[in-house]
Amino acid sequence: MPEQRKNKITNPEANFDKPKDVARDAALTHDEKKKALNTWEQDERQRLTASNEGMTATDEGQREDEANRLGDVVQAKEKIGEKPKHKPSH
User: pTM of this prediction?
Assistant: First the structure.
């Protein structure tokens, strides 16, 4: 697999402006899109957890104005026929 394509899957936020851009990428297979969006979803859930635990955006190395994109990731996954991963309840 070419390095750029692999990077799109393992680091989608660095390669796409929005999650829906992953769903629209004709160069990626359905499975690759699914993996990229799963990675993005996991990252967003971790940010949300950190935020809920009192860490600020700057603590996480993110820009303060950067909104959580979990909803956008969920919509992009629905576009390719996938469901979001639900966090198990404790």
Answer: 0.77
Average pLDDT over residues 66-80: 86
DSSP H helices in the chain: 3-10, 12-15, 19-24, 30-52, 70-79
In a domain, 85, yes or no: no
Note the pLDDT tens digit of each residue in 24-47.
Answer: 999 999 999 999 999 999 999 898
- Residue in 2, 14, 13 with CA at minimum distance from that of residue 76: 13
Residue 89 forms part of a structural domain: no
Q: Is residue 58 a part of any domain in this protein? A: yes
CA 77 to CA 59: how far, in whole Å? Answer: 28
Domain carrying residue 73: 3-79
